[in-house]
Design brief:
There is one protein chain. By secondary structure, the protein is mainly beta. 0% of the residues lie in helices and 70% in strands. It has no helices and 16 strands. It has a 14-stranded antiparallel β-barrel with strand order 1-2-3-4-5-6-7-10-11-12-13-14-15-16. Strands 8-9 form a two-stranded antiparallel sheet. It is globular and about 55 Å long. The model has no long low-confidence stretch (mean pLDDT 93).
Length: 219
C-alpha cells in the first residue's frame, strides 16, 4: 500500500436472497506501519453473521512482511438471540525474488468460542500460497488451505492486465469444484470489478466490487 484506499464488495450466493454477503475494507499506510479495517455481513433478517476486524502490518526489510488482525464475530438467530466471539489472524509474506512471493496465514488457531457455555469454536484455518509475477501484465498464484474438520482445499488462479485500465482474472477451488472469473475496470482513482463463480450443483454467484484509491492522478 502506498496511500489510503477503501472498497466495498457484495455478492448474492447462488442467487439466493438469504445468502447475501457484503464486505467493507480500508487500509491506511503510515510511517509506523499499515493499519486496516474490515467489516463483513452475511445472511438475512432471521439469520445473519457479522465480523469486525482491525489489522496492523509492516515490512521487516525488503524481503519479509508481517501482519496481524483481531476480529469480533457475531451471530444472530431470530427467536434464539445473539452470540459472539473474539478471534485473531496472523500472516507473513516472503519475497523470494522480485517476481516470486510466498506466504503463510493462520486464522483462529486457539480460542474463539461462542456463547455463555463456550461449546462452539471458530474454525481454525491454515494456508500457504505461492505467487509469480510472470510480467507486469500477468500474475499467477496457488494456495493450499486446510480448515478444521474439512478436507484440504486448493485455490489457483491468474490475473492478466491488457492495459492499465482493463484486467481479467479466473480461477478454481478444488473443495467445491467451483470456477470463478472477473473483469476489472479502472478509471482515475476508481476501480470496478464484476465477478461471478459457478458451482456445478448450486449454480452461479454474481458479485460487484468498487475500490477507491485516495491519490491524485492515479490510474
Amino acid at each position: 500500500m502506498k496511500n489510503f484506499a477503501a472498497g466495498v464488495y457484495g455478492e448474492r450466493r447462488f442467487l439466493l436472497n438469504e445468502l447475501n454477503n457484503y464486505s467493507f475494507a480500508a487500509a491506511l499506510p503510515t510511517k509506523s506501519g499499515n493499519f486496516g479495517l474490515k467489516a463483513l455481513y452475511s445472511g438475512f433478517s432471521d439469520y445473519n453473521e457479522t465480523q469486525l476486524g482491525l489489522a496492523y502490518a509492516r515490512s521487516l526489510g525488503s524481503r519479509i512482511d508481517i501482519g496481524a488482525q483481531f476480529n469480533y464475530y457475531g451471530i444472530r438467530i431470530s427467536g434464539y438471540g445473539n452470540a459472539s466471539a473474539i478471534g485473531f489472524e496472523l500472516g507473513t509474506v516472503l519475497h523470494i525474488t522480485e517476481r516470486i512471493h510466498t506466504g503463510v496465514h493462520v486464522s483462529n488457531p486457539v480460542g474463539g468460542k461462542f456463547g455463555k457455555d463456550q461449546q462452539e469454536k471458530l474454525s481454525s484455518i491454515y494456508s500457504i500460497g505461492l505467487g509469480y509475477d510472470a510480467s507486469e501484465k500477468f500474475f499467477v498464484s496457488a494456495e493450499i488451505e486446510k480448515e478444521e474438520d474439512r478436507p484440504v482445499n486448493i485455490n489457483a488462479g491468474f490475473q492478466y492486465r491488457f492495459i492499465p485500465q482493463l484486467m481479467i482474472r479466473a480461477g478454481v477451488s478444488s473443495a467445491t469444484s467451483s470456477v470463478w472469473g472477473g473483469v476489472g475496470l479502472s478509471w482515475n482513482a476508481i476501480r470496478l470489478d464484476i465477478t461471478t463463480s459457478y458451482h456445478p450443483d448450486l449454480g452461479i454467484t454474481p458479485g460487484l466490487m468498487i475500490l477507491y484509491n485516495f491519490k491524485k492522478n492515479n490510474n
